[in-house]
Amino acid sequence: MSIITTAKSSECPFHASADLEQKSKDFDMFGPEYQSCPATSMQNFREEKPIFFSEKMNYWIVTRYEDIREIFRDPITFSARNALEKIAPNSAEADEILKSYNYGMNRTLVNEDEPIHMERRRELLDAFAAPNLEQLRELTKKLITEEVDSFIGKGQVDLVATLLWDVPVIVALKFLGVPDDDIAVLQNYGVAHKVNTWGRPSGEEQKHVATNVGKFWHYSGEVLARMKQNSEGKSGWMYDMIHKNKSNPRVVTDNYLHSMMMAILVAAHETTATATANAIRHLLLRPNLWKKLHDQPELIPAAVEECLRYAGPIVSWRRQATKDVQVAGVDIKEGDKLFLVMAAANRDPQQFENPEELDILRDNANEHLSFGYGAHQCLGRNIGRLEMCAFIEELTRRIPDMEMMEQNFTSLPNTSFHGPEELWVRWDPNAVVQHAKEQSTFPIGNPDKRSIVRSAKVAAINNLTPSIKRIVLESADDILPLPRWTPGAHIELFLPNGLKRKYSLCPSEQPNQYTVLVKHEPESQGGSRWIHEELQVGDQLPIQGPKNFFKLDTAADHYLLVAGGIGITPLLSMATELHQQKKRFELIYCGRTRDNLAYCDIPEQFIRAPQLYISGEGRRADLRALVSAQKPGTHIYACGPDKMLDELDALAEEYQLGLTFELFSSASSILDPEKETAFEVELIDTGKTYLVPRDKTLLEVLLAHDIEVTNDCEEGLCGSCEVVVVEGQIDHRDRVLTANERRSNTKMMSCCSRAVGKVKIKL
Ligand code: FES
């Protein structure tokens, strides 16, 4: 069976314990739990009370991936104006100090709203495109090599102080075009800006911080003035802005230049240093991964992305509602402030399988929210990725036995940046690699998910029926076992004949093994036929996953599981889980003949026997009778042929029951260039217009222009490539949106749906 999934699910209410209710009211971002590990501290909130109001902080705290992504996606309803607002107001004395420096930090790309935000972003974004960053690559590598040369003989250093702090600031200032002599001074003031905005300094500290922020403002103004006087023929992003300031002063104002100078230094420097420190810390905690990256540096871009997901440098961000609105069913009033905990969203099990594991072969790690999302997504993300790859490559390449020393990690108390202030590591100076291997050159930008694969080996093949084989896979990699998965998950097999096939996972007898069932399809394009005729025990296959778009929600009172033919595979794992959790369920298993039904004799240790309906033996399932007999509160999970799912869909609506289903495949999404017409799409986030030709999908066009859009099935079935429709008519081809959603014309699946005429969208 080749499967891809889609789901319709009834709303599931959240029930928080009384203890959590009280904790939510008293929640303090400066409390020890959040400060020591923001992601872990929010785990219970995310599962039981995903949005709550902290009376103490006067913020709505939002923790789920889907909710945060939707908020980032709508900059009109959720203003960015409070993104740089001071968390703790200044004392009168601190304000006086700032006034004495004429401190006038104003809005920047980070905290301004539409329409001026997009006007400015459009003017300023070209320099950040991946092809324009090539010149930074060699500089970055050279700087890192020189720094590593300077300490490699010592055998022990604090990496933050000796390497991770210096290189990003030099790279940032080179990118900006700021003269070298100003680097050290500007670097030191960055910390003050961070504490001033996101920290809660005490009275005396406030005065110290205000003095440094004032000096930072004053000094950056002086540097800017010098650059303006001498801007002819100079290159760098600040010079670009200085030229725009002359050519378009309405959009790029004097104050804007000055404010950006200060903001960009912190953004470009601190985030990269912190992200890299986090990544190295977590890789060294798992020495096998460090060794793996030494042996296979081509895995570094994927590892960087996973580290950004697992422990990104920016753990939270802020927004403010511009009108009354609902988030996850909770009423938010105009003017209310929201605190979005991306660290919690990045470990949301609804989005990432096995979220608490650092899995460097996770092919959807780049869906993390560490760079934000949508119109305000971090412009400098590709510079950060480039530097992180270069740091990790140089260190794993030259110091393969590096290990972390015993230490107490500390981080600067603040709400939004999280990483160690020091990172002490050691190694044997006699065991370093001087120049044995060439440095790698990684592509700049978002890593290509097609290159992120695991190597699996066939451990067993059994014939369950004449047409169904059971394939058991295990990791072919000594270091990286196959990760755990949850009921409903699937993997994708890459076959030697070039075909890719998705298969749901069934329970395995051994941990770290994957079991799939493959039915020999008479109409096979070569996938199931190859597996049935060619695949042997001991063969190795690249695989991707596991991923889960068919999640089992165990909050329902009762379950009806309906499987058609080979559709039993995901439902078998669900039944096993429900059985173990002592939940009430019925498993209905339908097919034409016994040959079509694997696991007619389902092992007792997994579940109790299903109700079999074999039409060829005169016993056909009466779906109406089955559904109408269910109690309110029953949730139906189904996998099987389209006809069966369509019937269940209608019945679930008629009897007001929740339904989640998984489709085998979607014929309506297949692109036939002969029958298509080209269309134009304007991307509101950048203001740029693209032509989608008749032989390409919108998703393909966006990805080709280096625009990051999450995607998976590319068949209109998983919902991950959804974009927002601002204007225009859509010809929907997906199987994700409901009839109502299609009628509202507010979103589309970019992998398959097309526009009728010109369309405006946003990410
Ligand atoms: Fe899955 Fe488009 S719906 S990638």
Q: Which features does this protein show?
A:
4 domains, globular, six-stranded antiparallel sheet, six-stranded mixed sheet, Cytochrome p450, Elongation Factor Tu (Ef-tu), domain 3, binds FE2/S2 (inorganic) cluster, Rossmann fold, 24 helices, 763 residues, alpha+beta, disordered N terminus
**Roughly how many Å apart are the termini?**
33 Å
Helix/strand structural class = alpha+beta
The fraction of residues in strands falls at 15-25%
Q: Which sheet architecture does the biggest sheet show? A: 6 strands, mixed
Q: Mean of the pLDDT scores?
A: 88
Q: Which segments are poorly predicted (pLDDT under 50) over 5 or more consecutive residues?
A: 1-14
CATH class of the largest domain: Mainly Alpha
Question: How does this model look, in words?
Answer:
This protein has 763 residues and is an alpha+beta fold. Helices cover 35% and strands 19% of the residues. The protein has 24 helices and 27 strands. Helix 11 crosses helix 12 and helix 12 (203-229) packs across helix 14. Mean pLDDT is 88; it is low at 1-14. Residues 711-714, 716-721, 734, 736, 749, 751 line the site of FE2/S2 (inorganic) cluster. FE2/S2 (inorganic) cluster is lined by residues 711-714, 716-721, 734, 736, 749, 751.
